[in-house]
Structure formats: structure tokens, C-alpha cells
Write a structure and sequence with these properties.
This protein is an alpha+beta fold and 334 residues long. The protein folds into two domains: 84 residues, Hepatocyte Growth Factor; 165 residues, Beta Barrel (Cyclophilin). The chain is 18% helix and 26% strand. The chain is elongated. InterPro entries: Cyclophilin-like_dom_sf (IPR029000), Cyclophilin-type_PPIase_dom (IPR002130). It comes from Quercus lobata.
Length: 334
Amino acid sequence: MGRRQNDSELGRCAILSLLFMGTISCCMVYVCLSVVFNRPSRIATVSSVSDVVEDGGQEESECCRGIEHLELWGDAVKWGSDFKVSSSEDCCMACKSMCGGEDGPCFCDSWVYCGDKEACGPRFGECWLKKQKDALDPDRRDSGDKVMWTSGLVFGKGKGIFGLKTEYGVIHIKLFPDCAPHSVSYILEMLQLRHFAGCQFYRAESRGNFWDSEGNHIENAPFGPPFAVIQGTLEAIGSSFKDTPTETCPTIRRGSVAWVGSGPEFFISLANHNEWKKAYTVFGSVLPEDMEIVELITQLPTKPEVWSNINVSVLEKPVAFQFQRIKTSHGNLK
């Protein structure tokens, strides 16, 4: 006859069971999110993405981040020797405060902070606020592990915008350096290239009857397929892409531009995907007036493919694009 478990043994079994169930749940959520975008060589198997529960579309908190071990140069508008703060976030916010609201000019578009107490010595806490001659090509003085500075960019209204030039028009994208500084740094590097062979959209799926024209999900409708995205790659042939780290991940909204995993595959969303939580690094957003070009691409001829048991629509003819610099103020991003 088996021995009856005492109370302590039952408690241990209950804890182990809860830990096991939690691990399985986390793995399932990860698989559900990754399968929607990854190409066949990278995907896992899942039956449906609709198993992920909506989060109600909570408002995003403001982020203010930079890149460690990077020193940006440029004209100082506030000297760090006379201005010290307690964190890089405070330094970033001080730069943002010099942007005059919705319609005013931005007197600061970059900041440099010394936050390593040992390395900085008497310069610890210094916050240098600067203005670049070209915000899309910031002046870098030094980078590397021995650099004690943390630097970041701030793009005011109408600034920090680049274009993806297609045969159907230019898709203008506002960059988010305060949320995804590493991703934006890569985009700025791409803007310096002379050729963009290999950069293209290869997947296109409309909103179907699941989301309205403003990207809101229709009550009781499925979450796809189609998944209301266009997907492509931001890596030019011959260039070397370094995987981007996971950065601040706001919820995917209509117009959001985000990496698939750590890149260089990326997507533009045509809908508000609250059901995807904050699983993807969002580094920009398409200007509202250019979403009609994105919608147009979803209407091009496609062919069906199956990626790990998920039906997707692949463009019969991929849409190539080039990067385009936008030097003047442009548009009004909602």
C-alpha cells in the first residue's frame, strides 16, 4: 500500500506544479507571437495567434533612453560643467523640455550624460545638451567600452523622418530614438549607404474584415489571417547587419514599424494589435498620410504560403525600396 503524503510533501508538489505550468505558459506565448512573422527557416509551430489575450490598449508610458559608451559631439546649448542630473533619463528629459510643444522649435536634439561614477570622477552627473547640424547624421566623437558617456537623440515635431521610396510612392517614417536608440542608430547608418539592393517588402496582408479603417479590431472577429501587415527586410546586399537588442516595446498600433525578432526582418502594421502585447521592438511609425501607400501594397497580387501551419500571403513580385533622407520638417505624426 502506498504511503500517504504529509502536508509538507503536498506543499512541495503544489509549488513544483505551479512552476511547471508557468514555464509552459510563457513558452506558448513566445511561440504564438513569433510565428506570425518569421520566415520558414526561423519559425516555430503554433495553431493560432488568437490565443493571446488582448491587454485593453493601455496608454504607453513615455520613454527616454540612450546608448551607453557613446559620445555625441555637436554645438552645446547647455554646458554639462554647469548642469548635473541624477540619471541619463533626467538628461534626456531636460533635452526634451527644450522642444517648444506641438508647434515650437526644438533647441536641443541630442544629449550626453556621464553616469559611471568611477570612470567619470568629478564629471559624474554632467549632462550636456546639444544641437546637431544634421540630426539624421549626428556628429560622433567616440564609442566603445572605454567611453564613459551615454548619449541619445531627441527628434521634435517634423524631425527625425526618413523615407522608404517605392514605385508606389514614398513611405515617410518618424523615428523613435528615445524608445529604441540602438534600432534608430542602425537606420541612420543605412541612410549613409549608396545602394539598397535587397531591401524589399515580400509579404502583404490586408486588414480583411477583422479591423476597421482606423485599425480598431472588430468585436468577436478573428485576429487573422490575414494579419494586417506588410513585411520585408532592411538589410542591403553586401552590408553587415548586427542583431539589435530588444528595446522599449510599445503596443503595436496602426502605422507602427517594428523588428521581427532582432531584425533585419521588419513589418509595418495596418491595425492596432493589442493581442500581441509588447513583444516587438517598435522603432518608428508611418506618417498617417502615407498609410494609403501601405494599404495599396496589400492589394497587390499575392500567393499563399504556409509558415509553420500558419497561412500567409507572399507578394508575387516583391516591392523594392530605397532609403530617402528627409532634411526639412515634414508632416504631422499623430
